């Protein structure tokens, strides 16, 4: 069997969820498990969290079905709402909480047979300009939906664009806009993603929506997950499958971009971009072999990558290689590759088996 596995520490996810709750005592939290729980496997993650999480949040009805199988009673929020009449029927059948992000979605809801009234989360466009109503339009729809037989709770939600950046002006403006909606009585309010859960108490309203922090990665460029008290969840582990002595002046890999400056020992590792390791990780990005960081040498291939093991003379074929995990934070690999931990975690491909530790 090809030696590559993503090991998922479910106890670490529970630890991270508990940490999110401790940041905002008395608040409830939707564990955000969209995109297959950020690549970790939604069924297993929901099963691990179902006795502790107040609810879950997903992106689509299809994702909601996976969660419902594991947590039949949990509150389950559809973050982008329903896309068509079938989605509304499914939402009513599953008893979902739904976001309503625009007039078109609200009208479609009113066209549905009210088989089961839904908890609605009206989305305020507080400044991100991605989804949501303007304040006056939101008030109008809140009143209309309050009277509709398809609707149970009328709630307010909004999403922060820059909560991961210290004291960003837009965050102040967004919060002002959210808190400006106070005069209309909403049943529940929800504004906080992971960054806001961790650092922005004014955004801690009734329900939090932590995502990335549950998976032990940091939402901040400047603060590591370890500093925040988060435990890493996924360890991506491959093996050294070949060793080559490369003389000075010879190159390694596609494009011959890495050239040996000294007699070098190169290890070939069983993980490539078709597994989700970023092709843009430059030479020098580290992996961990025998507890020691060693640098990538040359371009990442589809199924393999190469590392410079010259400073690790005992390294051997069969040695385990941590691409990311406790010793090599996914956020560091992401930063080296010009992206964020979110992208790397959600892009670990289906061909990488997930192994769960409880
Ligand atoms: C509407 C909404 N809420 C919450 C989250 C969770 O955000 P984070 O993973 O930064 O905690 C997301 C993620 O993209 C989102 O789109």
Automatic annotation (TrEMBL):
The molecular function terms of the Gene Ontology recorded here are:
alanine racemase activity; pyridoxal phosphate binding
Enzyme Commission number: 5.1.1.1
Q: Which cofactor names does the annotation list?
A: pyridoxal 5'-phosphate
Detail which positions bind substrate: 130, 302
Task: Cite the entry's keywords alphabetically.
Answer: Isomerase, Pyridoxal phosphate
Q: Name the pathway.
A: Amino-acid biosynthesis; D-alanine biosynthesis; D-alanine from L-alanine: step 1/1
Cellular compartments per GO CC: cytosol
Name the chemical reaction catalysed here.
L-alanine = D-alanine
**Residues forming the catalytic site:** 34, 254
Residues in domain Alanine racemase C-terminal?
Answer: 233-357
Q: What class of enzyme is it?
A: isomerase
Q: Which InterPro entries match?
A: Ala_racemase, Ala_racemase/Decarboxylase_C, Ala_racemase_C, Ala_racemase_N, Ala_racemase_pyridoxalP-BS, PLP-binding_barrel
Q: Which GO terms describe its biological process?
A: D-alanine biosynthetic process
Q: Which SMART domains match?
A: Ala_racemase_C (SM01005)
Its function, per the record, reads: Catalyzes the interconversion of L-alanine and D-alanine. May also act on other amino acids.
For this chain, the family text in UniProt reads: Belongs to the alanine racemase family.
Q: What is this protein called?
A: Alanine racemase
Question: What organism does the UniProt record list as the source?
Answer: Pseudomonas saudiphocaensis
């Amino acid at each position: 069997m090809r030696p590559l596995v993503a090991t998922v520490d479910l106890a670490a996810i529970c630890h991270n969820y508990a940490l999110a709750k401790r940041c905002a005592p008395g608040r409830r939290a939707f564990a955000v498990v969209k995109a297959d729980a950020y690549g970790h496997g939604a069924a297993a993650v929901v099963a691990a969290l179902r006795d502790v999480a107040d609810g879950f949040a997903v992106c689509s009805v299809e994702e909601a079905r996976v969660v419902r199988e594991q947590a039949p009673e949990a509150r389950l929020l559809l973050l982008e709402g329903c896309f068509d009449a079938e989605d509304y029927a499914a939402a009513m059948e599953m008893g979902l909480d739904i976001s309503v992000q625009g007039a078109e979605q609200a009208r479609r809801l009113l066209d549905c047979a009210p088989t089961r009234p839904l908890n609605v989360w009206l989305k305020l466009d507080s400044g991100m300009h991605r989804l949501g109503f303007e304040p006056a339009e939101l008030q109008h729809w809140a009143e209309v939906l309050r009277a509709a037989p398809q609707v149970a709770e009328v709630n307010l939600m909004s999403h922060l664009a820059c909560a991961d950046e210290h004291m960003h002006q837009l965050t102040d403006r967004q919060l002002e806009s959210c808190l400006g909606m106070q005069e209309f009585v909403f049943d529940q309010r929800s504004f906080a993603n992971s960054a806001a859960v961790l650092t922005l108490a004014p955004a801690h309203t009734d329900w939090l929506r932590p995502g990335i922090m549950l998976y032990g990665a940091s939402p901040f460029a400047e603060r590591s997950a370890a500093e925040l008290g988060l435990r890493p969840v996924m360890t991506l582990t491959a093996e050294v499958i070949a060793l080559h002595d490369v003389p000075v002046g010879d190159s390694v890999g596609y494009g011959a971009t890495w050239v040996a400056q000294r007699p070098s020992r190169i290890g070939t590792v069983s993980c490539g971009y078709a597994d989700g390791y970023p092709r843009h990780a430059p030479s020098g990005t580290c992996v961990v072999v025998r507890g020691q960081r060693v640098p990538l040498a040359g371009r990442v291939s589809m199924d393999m990558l190469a590392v410079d093991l010259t400073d690790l003379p005992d390294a051997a074929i069969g040695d385990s290689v941590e691409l990311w995990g406790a010793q090599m934070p996914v956020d560091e690999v992401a930063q080296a590759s010009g992206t964020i931990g979110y992208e790397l975690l959600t892009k670990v491909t289906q061909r990488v088996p997930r192994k769960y530790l409880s």
